[in-house]
Amino acid sequence: MPITRDEVAHLARLSRLALSDEELDHLAPQLGQIIEAVAQVQEVAADGIPPTSHATGLTNVFREDEPAPCLTPEEALSGAPAVEMQRFKVPRILVEE
Amino acid sequence: MDELITMTAADLSAAMAAGEVSAAEVTTAHLDRIAAVDDRVKAFLHVAGDDALAQAREVDARRKAGEPLGPLAGVPVAVKDLFTTVGMPTTCGSKILQGWRPPYESTITRRLRDAGAVLIGKTNMDEFAMGSSTENSGFGPSHNPWDLDKVPGSSSGGSSAAVAAYEAPLALGTDTGGSIRQPAAVCGVVGTKPTYGGSSRYGVVAFASSLDTPGPLGRTVLDAALLHEVMSGHDPMDSTSINAPVPPVVEAARHADVAGLRIGVVSEFSGDGYQPGVMTRFTEAVDLLEALGAKVTEISCPHFKYALPAYYLIAPSEASSNLARFDGMRYGLRTGTGSAEEVMALTRAAGFGAEVKRRIILGTYALSSGYYDAYYGKAQQVRTLIIRDFDAAFSQVDVLISPVTPTTAFPLGERVDDPMAMYLADLCTIPTDLAGNAAISVPCGLADEDGLPAGLQVMAPPLADDRLYRVAAAVEAALEQRWGHPLLAEAKGLAR
C-alpha cells in the first residue's frame, strides 16, 4: 500500500477537508489503488524531456490597462454567506490564547 | 412528438428566418418536451421557463424590426451548469454552490445571448466536471435516453442527454479528459472538444485550467459546427485564449469530402477492455472512410498508454489548487462554527462529494514536496512525450481516428465505487486534452451486444478543427444513407 490512513488524514488537513473516520477508512485503500496505477508514469524514460504545464506555449499575455466597469459592491457581495458594513463577514482568523 | 423538437438547429434557424415559425413557438415546444420527459431523463438542474420565453420573444421582436440575425437566433441551447449565467443558478453539480447566482456572465454564454440563442436551462454534470457518468452530481444522476438504466456519460452528461432526448437541439459542454466526447458517444450525438484556447474559459468554473475546453454538442455535425463557430474566438478576458481566426468549421461541415485525406488509425486503442461491438462499428467506419477515398494507415503513438496515469496526476493537482477557492467565505455554502479554518474544513467536508474529495487529496499528494518530482513532474514530462507523438503522427497524416470510449453506456451504479474502472471511460479521449489539440465524436452505429451507440473519434492538430467536421460530416452522411434515418431514431429509452 503506497499510502497509509495517517498520510491521508494529514493530506485532508492540508486540504481543509474535515473527513470523518468512515471517509478515511474508505478513501485510504482507494487512494492507494489509484496511486499505484498513476505511478506507471515512472516507467517512462523521460531523462532530458522538458515538462509541459500547458499546451499553447503562450507566455506573459498582456492587455491594455484601460479602466472599465466592474462589479458593484452589492453584486460582489451578492453570494456571501454573511455581510457586514459592505464587507465579507468571516469567522475569526486568529485564535486567542 | 412535436415536429419542432426533432428538427435540427440549422432547419429551425431556416424556418424561423422564413417566418414559418416563431422563436417563441420553438422555445415553447422544447419547454413542453422538458416538462414531458425530464422527470425521467433528469438532464436539467434548472429550466429557464419564462426567462427562456422572454429571450425568444425578444428575438422575434428583433426579427420583426428587420435586424440582421445570426444562424443561432431563436435556437434553444442547454448550458452545462458550470458556465456562469446571470439570472440563472450555477452549481457545477455541487452542494457547495447550491443556489448560487453568479454576479457575472461567462464569455461564451454572453456571445450566445448576443447571437440571439435562447438559453433554455442549465444541465446536470458530475460535480465540478469530475466523472464519466453524472453519478458524482450532488443532485442525482441523469439517465441515458437510449436506456434509462444506463449512464448518459459525463461530465457533460446532462447536456448529451438533453440533446439526445430532444429537450434542446444544442448544448454547451466542457471537455477536460473527454467530458464532451464520451457523453456524446454513449448518447449517440455529436460532440466536439475544440483546440485548447479556441473557446474562452472566462466564466467557466475551473476544474483543471490547463485542460478545460468548452465545446458544442448537437444531433448533427452541422449543428455542432454552428454552435462551435458562434462560441469560439479570441477573448481578452482569458489569458490562455488563442488570438487567431476561428477555423472554418461550418464551411467544413457543409463540404463532407475525405477524398485524398490521409487518416491514421491509432494502433494503441484496441485490444483488451474494448467491447467487441464497439470495435466492429469502428472497423466498419475505417472501411467506410477508405471507400470514400481516404488514405488510411495505422499509426503508433507509443506514449498514449501513459496518458491516463499522467492525466490522473495533472488534473487532480490542478483541481486541488483551483478548488481551494471554495472556502465558505465569499459565496456558496458555509457551515459549522469555530475559527475560519475550522469553518472552511467543515464547509468543504459537507459541500464536496466523494470524488471531489478523492481528487483534492490525490492532487495534494502529487504536489507534496518529496513526491512532486516522481508524480507531478513526471506526468508533465509524459505530457511533452504525448505532444511529440501527436506531432510525429500529424507529420504523416491529416487526422487520427479511434473509438471514443472502450464500451457503450454502462449501467448506473456499476462503477460508482470503483474509481479506476470509471476512469477507463476516458482512455481514448485524454491524449487530446493533454496535448491541447482538437477532436470530435460522431456516432458510428450501435453495438450488437446491447444496441447502444458507439462513437468514432477524429483528432486533428491544434487550430485544424475544421478537418474534424469534414471527416465527421462525411461519415454521418454515408452512415445515414446506409441506415435510412438518423441513428437517434432508434433510441427507445423514451417510448414515444
Please describe what this structure looks like.
The complex is a heterodimer of chains A (97) and B (496). Chain A is mainly α and 97 residues long. Chain A is built from 3 helices and 2 strands. Chain A has a domain at 1-43: Histone, subunit A. Helices cover 33% and strands 4% of the residues of chain A. A two-stranded antiparallel ribbon of chain A has the order 1-2. Chain B has one domain (3-302, 386-490): Alpha-Beta Complex (Amidase signature (AS) enzymes). The mean pLDDT of chain B is 96. In chain B, strands 1-3-2-4-6-5-10-11-9-7-8 form an 11-stranded mixed beta sheet, sandwiched between helices. Chain B has 496 residues and is of the alpha/beta class. Chain B is globular, with a radius of gyration of 21 Å. Chain B is 40% helix and 13% strand. Classes of the chains: A mainly alpha (97), B alpha/beta (496). At the A-B interface, α1 and α2 of A face α11, α12, α13 and α14 of B.
The radius of gyration over CA of chain A amounts to 23 Å
CATH superfamily of the domain at 1-43 in chain A: Glu-tRNAGln amidotransferase C subunit, N-terminal domain
Number of helices of chain A: 3
Low-confidence stretches of chain B: none
Number of domains of chain B: 1
Write the layout of secondary structure elements.
The complex is a heterodimer of chains A (97) and B (496).
Chain A lengths: L4 H10 L6 H18 L34 H4 L6 E2 L2 E2 L9
Chain B lengths: L2 H4 L2 H9 L5 H19 L2 E4 L2 H15 L11 E5 L26 H8 L3 E6 L33 H8 L5 E6 L5 H7 L2 E4 L19 E6 L2 H11 L17 H6 L7 E5 L9 H16 L3 E5 L7 H16 L17 H12 L2 H13 L6 H22 L4 E5 L15 H5 L6 H6 L2 E9 L6 E8 L4 H19 L13
Parallel strand pairs in B: 2-3, 2-4, 7-8, 7-9
Antiparallel strand pairs in B: 1-3, 4-6, 5-6, 5-10, 9-11, 10-11
Quick description:
The complex is a heterodimer of chains A (97) and B (496). Chain A is mainly alpha-helical and 97 residues long.
Please name the defining characteristics of this protein.
heterodimer, A: 97 residues, mainly alpha, Histone, subunit A, 3 helices, 33% helix, B: 496 residues, alpha/beta, Amidase signature (AS) enzymes, eleven-stranded mixed beta sheet, 17 helices, 11 strands
